[in-house]
Specification:
mainly alpha, Four Helix Bundle (Hemerythrin (Met), subunit A), 5 helices
């Protein structure tokens, strides 16, 4: 009986981790999609709305990353820390490069940053999600 309980607990921890990585994957995609929509927008009201959506998705992503670090599977911590470092750089560039360019009306500059270095960072983060079994999200 005790073995079944332990097996059940392990299965529940794996399910919880899968949900967390899937939620992180969704939040990352939401943040990126809203950013790209903001890059293409020239409407101030729409840009403000999209920025709020970016911030909301970013907060969700950061919470999910912290949850991954709190789970029992410590073997993933190195990958999560690389993700967090990449995310911090991505977010810094977004907040200090892309969004100021958009607000200044220089959407072309924002677009070049978004499809340049930011795309490379997105590939890194998406590869880590894949490594953490994020391809098995429903």
């Amino acid at each position: 009986m005790r073995q079944f309980l332990i097996i059940g607990m392990i299965a529940l921890m794996q399910i919880a981790q899968a949900e967390t990585i899937c939620d992180a994957k969704i939040a990352l995609a939401d943040a990126r999609l809203n950013l790209m929509m903001m890059v293409m927008s020239t409407d101030n009201v729409e840009q403000k709305f999209l920025k709020k959506e970016i911030d909301k998705a970013s907060l969700t992503l950061e919470n999910e990353l912290n949850n991954l670090l709190k789970d029992q599977n410590k073997s993933n911590d190195t990958q999560v820390m690389i993700f967090k470092k990449t995310w911090a750089t991505f977010k810094y560039t977004r907040e200090n490069g892309i969004i100021p360019a958009i607000r200044a009306g220089n959407n072309n500059k924002a677009f070049k940053i978004a499809i340049g270095i930011q795309s490379k960072r997105m590939r890194i983060m998406n590869n880590i999600i894949k490594t953490l079994d994020g391809d098995n999200c429903n």
